[in-house]
């Protein structure tokens, strides 16, 4: 797999050549965020997980910007575009139904734990979801586990 930084630089160059200012802007933003992460964490090598953390942070910032624009009655076309580009770098989200199946399996394998072991159930479910190549929303998993372990 191509190094994340190399991929971003390649796409940055392609955007310059094609004069696609929106793509150029988002790839510059990603490159800047990656550089800042590396500067702030010199002992950490930028692996897939760290890159996803950077992308999720940028995605969160653009979601907040979108909400602000909506409240101001302005168009969110650019934010939507940026968020779509950022989502290309994240693993696909898992469906609620599939998450429920995995959580049920974890609960069954742990022998119907009580609320005291909720953290363990969440951890194991998240690990299983990520091992399948999906992104796992911890808050969503936690809410699902809470509803099952009542």
Question: Could you please describe the fold and organization of this structure?
Answer:
The protein is an all-alpha fold. It contains 7 helices and no strands. The chain has 2 domains: 84 residues, Hypothetical Protein Yqey, Chain: A, domain1; 53 residues, no CATH class. Helix 1 runs antiparallel to helix 2, helix 2 crosses helix 3 and helix 6 packs across helix 7. The model has no long low-confidence stretch (mean pLDDT 88).
Topology:
Layout: H1 4-18, H2 21-40, H3 48-71, H4 77-87, H5 96-109, H6 118-131, H7 138-148
Helix pairs in contact: 1-2, 2-3, 3-4, 5-6, 5-7, 6-7
Q: Structural class, from helix and strand content?
A: mainly alpha
Any guess at the CATH architecture of the largest domain?
Orthogonal Bundle
Specify Rg, calculated over alpha carbons.
19 Å
Oligomer: single chain
Order of helices and strands: HHHHHHH
Number of domains: 2
Mean pLDDT: 88
**Termini gap:** 44 Å
Question: Characteristics of this structure?
Answer:
150 residues; single chain; 2 domains; 73% helix; Hypothetical Protein Yqey, Chain: A, domain1; 7 helices; mainly alpha
Concise synopsis of the structure shown:
α1 packs antiparallel against α2 and α2 (21-40) crosses α3 (48-71).
């Amino acid at each position: 797999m191509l190094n994340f930084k190399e991929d971003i630089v390649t796409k940055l160059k392609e955007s310059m050549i094609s004069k696609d200012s929106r793509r150029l802007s988002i790839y510059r933003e990603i490159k800047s965020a990656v550089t800042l992460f590396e500067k702030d964490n010199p002992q950490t090598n930028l692996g897939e997980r760290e890159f996803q953390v950077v992308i999720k942070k940028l995605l969160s910032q653009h979601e907040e910007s979108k909400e602000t624009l909506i409240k101001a009655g302005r168009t969110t076309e650019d934010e939507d575009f940026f968020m779509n580009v950022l989502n290309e770098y994240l693993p696909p989200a898992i469906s609620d139904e599939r998450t429920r199946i995995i959580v049920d399996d974890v609960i069954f394998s742990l022998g119907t734990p009580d609320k005291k072991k909720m953290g363990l159930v969440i951890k194991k479910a998240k690990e299983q979801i990520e091992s399948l190549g999906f992104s796992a929303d911890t808050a969503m998993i936690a809410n699902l586990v809470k509803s099952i372990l009542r």
